[in-house]
């Protein structure tokens, strides 16, 4: 079995920060998607995925991220990535997804950016 975990570290209101560790591949992508969508279903429509501990990502993992992004959008939410590994960052750039999937150097940066965007959103 491939090593994988998704751990929700911060859940407040409609925001969830989750740390993803291990390999994102054909064996783990369905679990990534299911666990992230469960957070959305629990009312956390804004997700930050900290990918700093991801050691490998194939097309299945990449597709899971795209699916999570789409599901978040359907509930007027967002998916933001943090600490994206170099290879995955290159895939996001090559496919043009980096233009719609914001990435931050750390989870802390992503949390600050989310807070700032909420402060400027009209009520």
Automatic annotation (TrEMBL):
This protein's source sits in the domain of life called Bacteria
Please state every residue range assigned to the domain named STAS: 14-114
Q: Which PROSITE patterns match?
A: STAS (PS50801)
The protein's matches in Pfam families, at most eight in alphabetical order, are given as: STAS
Q: CDD domains per the record?
A: STAS_anti-anti-sigma_factors (cd07043)
Sorted alphabetically, which InterPro entries does this protein's record hold?
Anti-sigma_ant, STAS_dom, STAS_dom_sf
Xref: SUPFAM superfamilies: SpoIIaa-like (SSF52091)
**Which protein family is it in?**
Belongs to the anti-sigma-factor antagonist family.
NCBIfam families, per the entry = ant_ant_sig
Instruction: Tell me what this protein is called.
Output: Anti-sigma factor antagonist
Q: Which gene encodes it?
A: rsbV
